[in-house]
Amino acid sequence: MKIYKRIKAFYFWIFFIFSVALVLFAFCFTKNQNMLWKIRKLWAKTQKYTIGYRIELVGEFNPEASMLVINHQSTLDIIALEELFPKNLAWIAKKELAEIPLFKIAMKKPKFLCIDRKNPRDLVRILKEAKQRLEEDRVLAIFPEGTRSRTEKLLKFQNGAKILADKLKLKVQPILIIDSAKILDTKNFTASSGILKIICMNLIDTNDEKWLENTRKNMQELLDKERILSENLNIEMENKEC
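RESULT FIELD:
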């Protein structure tokens, strides 16, 4: 069974790299951000066919939200939101990603943002560029953990999201993604079909000084609750089979 999952992962990554190359080629023919967004959405929709996963959306994306804070477990997090979100997302990533040639090209044309977390002075540039994206009717998207979490526990949220939200007076919506690492496990190099659950939480009250810390707490509590529900459901199914 594990060999099958590894073969599936191999086919996914081959298709992923090939499709990204096609997208970058298509990017060469236009500078129109709306057209680039449509290309990205089409690309995102094709990715799930190599694995066969389904997406379950719980709640709604708030039309007033100007920034999404999202937990991060795998590449599927980006793919799923690119497919589903009704507005052009401006992803915020760490500078190290932009130093990889393929990612550098993929991030430059759609005008994504790259943060140099080791350089505090870079904040001025990021705030300026973020404001420009908002004026273009785009929505900022950030993984406040800063990197992928390898466990069911969320990592500590970095202050970048809070600084952006406080300085630019943003309306922030948390998005909780469940089981993306189980479907696409990069650590064990496996891929399997399943349900990728995306939960749209309520807008955050950013007037609370500890809103970022409290948001992490609320997301973790919901993640734990969903895990328990999933485990109980699996037990019930096993009992029925017996």
